[in-house]
Amino acid sequence: MPIPVPGRVAEALRKQTVHIQVGGRRGQSTGSGVIIGPERVITNGHVVRGQSLHVEAWDGRDVSASCLKLDAYRDLALLSAPGLRPEPACLRDSAGLRAGTAVFAVGNPLGFVGAVSSGIVHSVGSFGGLAWIQADLRLAPGNSGGPLADFHGQVLGINTMVMGGGLALAVPSRAVQSFLLRAQAGRSLGVTVRPVQLEAARLGILILEISAGAPAVTASLLPGDILAGAEGRAFQSLDDLQFAIDTAPEAVLHLDFYRGGQRNLRHVAVRLAPEQVPTAA
After folding, report:
1. What angle (nearest 5°) sits at the alpha carbon of residue 90, between those of residues 67 and 125?
2. If you ran DSSP here, which 8-state letter would residue 3 be given?
3. Is 162 helix (H, G, I), strand (E, B) or coil?
4. What is the Cα–Cα distance from 150 to 277, expressed in whole angstroms?
5. pLDDT tens-digit readout, 83-140
């Protein structure tokens, strides 16, 4: 792989990043987004709360936009921006990301369009049952929805919020990819879940409710069952369950689970259905 030139990588990321304005062309509030295909932009869900969306590209083109898909729980939104010239970003699988990786962030903080900051990844892990990338980047209001990328320009996540101490949190690209797959053809177990802690510091996903006639019913899953993994891989976050659902070959998901406090791990194959998306409590 060629040695990256930071200035060139940052310039390419600026062309892939848009300025999102909500509430008119001058914008009552602003944020950022990433071009992921012709006339398609990914951003944070909280960025697009409001009416009259406008997307301004790096070349100055300003187009009206609409929200195609919103996941308020994962704070992601897919926008349609007709007339937007494609300069699509490349999503890298965040599963292999490690602490210490050098990263860029591009966005529009406090009205400064195309601002660039850099830092390193502090950690990659689960917080509140969801997977996050934590990095020491200088972000401010207006950065939300912009790209977190490596020094080769590949997008690792979508910048979402700033924690105490100035550390930034980003939605990992694997969760973004799962969201985009659901936007094309949603699949569902038909369950409401929440994360629980298993022995040996492992994550479990407790089934709270199951919708009538859902695939989980057909597979004889029950409220109170604890999902432990899919396709032979243990869950690390709720995002892992959703990713397994969205990428299951031929819409058949193989789940590992515990029942009734038993220690014996059970296995079941579930044929997934479209439409509903599993929710979390």
Report:
1. 85
2. P
3. strand
4. 30
5. 887 778 999 999 889 999 999 999 999 878 899 999 999 999 888 788 999 999 988 8
